[in-house]
Amino acid sequence: MKRSTIIAVAVAATVAVSAAGCSTASEAEGTADDPVTLTFWGAYGNGGNSTQAEVLNDTLIPSFEKANPEIKVEYVDIPYDDLLKKLTTSAAGDELPDLVRADLGWVPKFADLGVLVALSDEMDNFQELADATYPGVLSTNLYDGKYYGLPLDTNTRVLITSQEALDAQGLDAPPATFEEFAAGADALSDSGMQVFADGGLGAWNISPWIWSGGGAITDDEVTTSTGYLDSDESVAAVQMLVDLYANDQISNGIIGNAGATSTSEGLPGGNYANILDGPWMNGIWSEQFPEFTPIYAPMPAGDGGSVSVVGGEDIVLTSTSEHKDAAMKFIEFTQSEEFQMALVPTGQLTVISALGDQQVELLPYLELFTDQLATAKARVAIPQASEVDTILNEALVPAFEGTVTVRDALTSAAQKIDELLAEE
Amino acid sequence: MTVLRSGERVSAGVAEVLSATPAPPSRSRRMSRRRAATAATPYLFLAPGLVLFAVTVLYPTLQAFQMSFFDWKIVGSATSEFLGLDNYARAFTDDHFWLALSNSGIYMVLTVAPQIVIGLGLALLIQKKSPTQPLFRVLFYLPVVTSWVVVSFLFKFLFSDGGLINFALGDLLHVTNGDTAWLADRWTGLIAICALGVWKGIGWSMMIFLAALQGVPQALIEAANMDGANRWQRFKVVTVPAIWPAILFVTVMLVIGGFNVFISVYLMTGGGPAGRTDVLLTYMYEQAFNNLDFGYGSAIAVILTIMVFMLSVVQMKVFRDRNGGGAQ
Amino acid sequence: MRKRNAAAGNALRIVVLSILAIIMVIPFLYMLSTSFKEQTFVFTNPPQFIPDPATTANYEQAIESSDFVRYFLNSLVVAVIATGLSLLVSSMMAYAFARFQFRFKEILFRVLLLGLMIPAIMLIIPQFILAKNLNLLDSLLGLILFYVAGSLALNTFLLRGFFESIPAELDQAMQVDGANAWLRYWKLALPLAKPGLATATIFTFLACWDEFTIALTLTNSPENRTLPIAIQLFAGQGNNAVQWGLVFAASMIAVVPVIIVFLVFQRYFVQGLTSGAVKG
């Protein structure tokens, strides 16, 4: 399938539909006396992090309700690890809420089930809203030529290190290239500090290394993985990590040791020199390790430049919602400056490119994240994205352990991903 | 069942199931005439429970069974394709299914035996009435009453690289160098998961054995004493046969619980690294809820159920045979 | 000689039991201690057994950041009502199985047995759809119904054993006096099976108090949330460090009531096991 063509068609269709005016919804509209209630599910409060949910419940929703007295919004916080299960069950029972803050990897999955509304078909001003967002973030909402959501917040991973680590490696600045990164590892060899740690080998973890090394997971049209995931560039990038792992310079958290010191503790604790992580870490550290000052730097560059991975959440509207017009008003609200900027201090990067500068003024350390986002790429957006993670993880763990070669591991992973793509 | 069947907590009562024999016929015959007048009585007693059970447990069970024959789509509007036995055939050629099955088996073996041996040992040690007995009883039973979610988090914490287990084995006892990455490997990971199973379960088996030991006829022990039997002989000849039903009961319950292990694996290792500590139910869970492959997930669950049922029937048979020649 | 041997044996017994008891209890004590630690002091080498500095911040955060009192009351209401109903309904069934002969008795009994072996997680979706059709989504009543249903099989099995161990002669004597089946069940069987009922109470209460999956699936609004979900909300995800102190503080809040229930009932509990459950 040719994605680009489909996109073109979709865009044309969207314009046509918008022109015709699609808001012919028949559902009952609320009034100020008898407001409709929208239900909104998300995991803002995950891990005891109450600040995001508080901003939403105490500031943003009241503000929206004041401006739209005919609508009430009820936000329900659900543990992140269980949200997917709950969405699945609710989809089976036709009991989904009106709005969901969905992990961006879930949008194609639920669009594929047919439980989401294609916003590009239904919202009059979709194109206008979509154009305001970062393209890499927006693309996570695309499924089968239509957009099923709008970006809500975004993030990406950058290199985070500490002064202690730089001193130990004899560096003046964080490693900017693969070579400096590997050289730093050599300098640490007897120090008891490991050069890098990560929590797994899924696409979220390994993609930045492959992309920065000049490799790829699939072709741009997402039709095949063979020839990309097992290219020389991809192999070389992974090989560098595998060599470091073999020298005990990378924590075994990366192969899935659930008992390894976590990255967020190991960096301030002096166990690890570098980690890749997101903007939310600042808040976590200031609460849990107030003495610690993180140093942020771009993802080290290889032959492919410095390329990181896009993360974040999208807001989606369910097809069972009885108040689609009201829900779309709230979606529009989430794209506003007010909404976006209120969540910035809690570690949620804005998805509106025009607000990037304002966000950096508010919190200067975010500049680096904003810059990194400019080149960051999204993971493969297919309904079986979680299976891609499983494939990568199961292929790469033996490679890190040294029981298969990196090339063999990536070749077999590429074949399995091809099979998934063929199913589509 | 949903509620009460998390692992080994499954309780005492099922002994009754497995040893269930109809009430002695003599009594019922004597009372039969009166009963004829009120033939409806037993059904009136059964009705509320059976209706509830049929609607909320049995009916969903049949639906789950039905799913296993389909490429089941969770959303009602989509058509599910009938696959016949394909999902079952797929399981038998799926390496990961066999890995998960063998892990479930390993868990079962490594937790059942210690729970029986240590549980029985503890029961023998504290059976004598003494001022300290209630205290020990409570202490050993404490893990049984604590929620699986809480103790799974707790053991993940204890078995983490910088955790208490490594400190104890390395810095205190010097049996390891104290930096074992327990949860990074299939075998050490399973050991950690099994350790939790045993720790949480021995209080339960101890309690059952304690109760059973109180039913050992004192006269038999004294008779054995007079015959000059030593302690081991008395245990073998008198005690074991007397508590044989309890031993079998505990075994059957622990085997069922062992194969149904889920939450501890899910929370401690998540099946990792690379799915190597997956057990049947974590694999089923991943297929159903991560990959939305409910047909295949249901097939795995059905295989598990059939296996456990057959194992229980075999054990019941062994139990009856042995019991026939036993002391009671 | 013999006496001294016995005394030595007794001392040895106490020593062995104490060592084992310490091993059993250390994880709890360590959890308690961790719940009073700041995150920085959770992993130290050597580990801290007495928190220094000790802080109650975790408890404060756990209680403040969510409506713990409400969740606590919800859990309590659901667990108490479900336990009561389950005991009533299952003891009636158990009485029928223990005291009457009727058609399909063994088959019905075995169907109940099979119900114990099906992985609960597989039933989530069918049960969710059922709850929806019965209009029981997002209500404590729905939780109670499924909890009662889920505990029926086990309690029936357990109580059947107790009822069968009550001498049939007592039953017959009452029958001669003209008491009907309900009176015999209510006035004779139930009082005599008190230990069994206590055992079943503990198991059912514990199971309802801890239940997570059904509660998560069937309830949405925070007003209907129970404690296990609140605890799960505290546990982190993915790469982020779990805030162990916070999780364990929330856990302690949930565990302590259970331990109290157990301490209150444990005397009956042992009696229960002795007189009913395992009678060869």
Automatic annotation (TrEMBL), chain A:
Please name one Pfam family that this protein belongs to: SBP_bac_1
- GO cellular component, as recorded: ATP-binding cassette (ABC) transporter complex, substrate-binding subunit-containing
Q: Which InterPro entries match?
A: SBP
Ordered alphabetically, the record's keywords are:
Signal, Transport
Q: Which GO molecular function annotations are given, in alphabetical order?
A: maltose binding
Q: Which GO terms describe its biological process?
A: maltodextrin transmembrane transport; maltose transport
- Keyword Signal found: yes
- Region forming the signal peptide: 1-19
Question: Would I find Transport among this entry's keywords?
Answer: yes
- Superkingdom of the source species: Bacteria
Question: Of which family is this protein a member?
Answer: Belongs to the bacterial solute-binding protein 1 family.
Q: What protein is this chain from?
A: Maltose-binding protein
Origin organism of this chain? Marisediminicola antarctica
Automatic annotation (TrEMBL), chain C:
The biological processes this protein is annotated with in GO are: transmembrane transport
Fetch the PANTHER family from UniProt.
ABC TRANSPORTER PERMEASE PROTEIN MG189-RELATED, ABC TRANSPORTER PERMEASE PROTEIN MG189-RELATED-RELATED
What is this protein called in UniProt? Answer: ABC transporter permease
Domain ABC transmembrane type-1, residue spans: 72-265
Gene Ontology CC: plasma membrane
**Transmembrane residue ranges:** 12-32, 71-95, 107-129, 141-163, 244-265
**SUPFAM superfamilies from the xrefs?**
MetI-like
Q: Which PROSITE patterns match?
A: ABC_TM1 (PS50928)
Give the residues annotated as coiled coil. Answer: none
Q: What family does the database annotate?
A: Belongs to the binding-protein-dependent transport system permease family.
Q: How does it sit in the membrane?
A: Multi-pass membrane protein
Cellular localisation: Cell membrane
User: Which keywords accompany this UniProt record?
Assistant: Cell membrane, Membrane, Transmembrane, Transmembrane helix, Transport
Alphabetical list of CDD domains matching this protein: TM_PBP2
